Amino acid sequence: MQLRSAPLAVSLGDPAGVGPELIAEAWARRLEHALPPFAAIGGASLLVEAGASRGIELPVEPIASLKDAAEVFGRALPVLGELDGSWRPGFPDSAGATLALASLKRATELTFAGEASGVVTAPIAKALLAEVGFDHPGQTEFVAAACGVAAEDAVMMLAGPQLRTVPLTVHVALAEVPGRITTDLIVRRARVAAAALERDFGIEAPRVAVAALNPHAGEGGKFGDEEARIIAPAIKALRREGIAATGPHPADALFAPHARHGFDVALCMYHDQALIPLKALDFDAGVNVTLGLPIVRTSPDHGTAFDIAGTGRANPGAMIAAIRMAGECAMRRAANG
User: What's the whole-model pTM score?
Assistant: First the structure.
């Protein structure tokens, strides 16, 4: 059970990317954004250096246990563990990937054990991690596996102030998408999303808008039959279960301002169908939330941005939003037992 008093655990991400400096910036703005207590998992010296690149004199304080984080948080950034490394912004290497993976593992373990109320993961470089033994498509799948949850039951949701989207298929070629969409997959992902919106976001009877795959929702079969053959039956099944599902909605109109008020989450058929509107509307405040886990996990919805790391140009909005959202979800879980 999540504990209301437990802090969040924040993994470092790749130290050559923007993660460390944005963690430092989030702590510096903790009062402005009313952020819950959090602790960085390792990286004490590189966090100080990364903060300095943004003009932040970051006080860090080592802690022996996450129980000490809340008391420290007001005066310094709590850092748990002796994991550390050199800060070389824009120059990723295997040593940095090893540190990123170790921090991610420890942060996830602490959260699964209940010592942290949630885990916030800073961006990683998947190709570099693969070189040091990371065999998952991304952090979502890693955290799911660490929690004993099947990858297909760990649902990625992108959430911002104006929109929430769930991609049905994620890191696959566009040509493979039609063959991967099934009625059962739509139903399973929608169930997880609806349950999580109610439990973690406090939305009663969540409304799920299901996007079409083809232009004009297939135009009565003229542009494809997936809508009638696969998507519509899934929506009917969801309605029979009491889930407020609608669609298939033509994707070119689903995200218009007047349409967005009609649903709480949009279930999209493929990666870009979900991420393009989210990033167009909420790029600097977008959060990647993993639904369907026994723990709370969020991440800023952007990458390592090696090209601007250390320049002070990276916007901290998504990291701040990820920390705030993790805290809010954890508090709801604690309040509901």
Answer: 0.94
Q: In which order are the strands placed within the sheet that holds 60-63?
A: 60-63, 77-80, 38-41, 8-11, 118-121, 297-300, 287-291, 155-159, 164-167, 265-268, 207-211, 244-249
Pick the CATH number of 1-152+293-337 from 3.40.718.10, 3.30.70.2860, 3.90.1170.50, 3.40.50.2000: 3.40.718.10
Q: Are 336 and 329 in contact (CB under 8 A)?
A: no
Distance of CA 143 to the CA centre of its chain: 11
Which tokens in the block code for residue 2? 């999540």
The tokens for 225 are 């039959």
Could you give the CA distance from residue 155 to residue 292 in angstroms, rounded to a whole number? Answer: 6
DSSP strands (E only) in 94-240: 118-121, 155-159, 164-167, 207-211
Q: What is the CATH number of domain 155-283?
A: 3.40.718.10
Residue 302 DSSP one-character state = S
Residue whose token pair is 């601007």 = 308
pLDDT tens for each residue of 14-52? 999 999 999 999 999 999 999 999 999 999 999 999 999
pLDDT attached to residue 333: 92
